[in-house]
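Weekly modeling sync, notes
Attendees: S.R. (lead), two postdocs, one rotation student

Agenda item 3: backlog of single-chain predictions. S.R. asked that every request posted to the team notebook include the full sequence so nobody has to chase files. The rotation student volunteered to paste the first one in as an example of the format we agreed on. Action items at the bottom.

Example entry:
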Amino acid sequence: MKSFPLFLSLIFMIASWAMGSYFLSVIYTPTIIVPLFNEFIWMRDYQGMLGLTTFLSLLTVPLITYMFKQRNRITKRRMWYSIVFTTHIFWLGTIAIQLKTVAFNLGICH
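Predicted structure, as returned to the notebook:
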């Protein structure tokens, strides 16, 4: 299988860490409001911006290393592409949640 989708997952992960670290330097509050669908959660600044990124990194890094080592042995394309597609969706969702949280805390969208 191709290794480009795995590198794309790593790029999404690095982008999420970079955005979270950058926005922590922009927002100068000890607590961050994380907007959900119909309620809000108050969290510490590091938990609010990098909590989901840390959790997904702990799940994704072992998966990507295993898939990178086994990329020539995996014969089922459907399994390969479904795992890669799922990780891409989760990382894009994490980046979107970070952007929404920052926009809400900076007062852009109320």
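Discussion: group reviewed the output briefly. Strands lie at 31-35, 40-44.
Action items: rotation student to repeat for the remaining queue; S.R. to check formatting next week.
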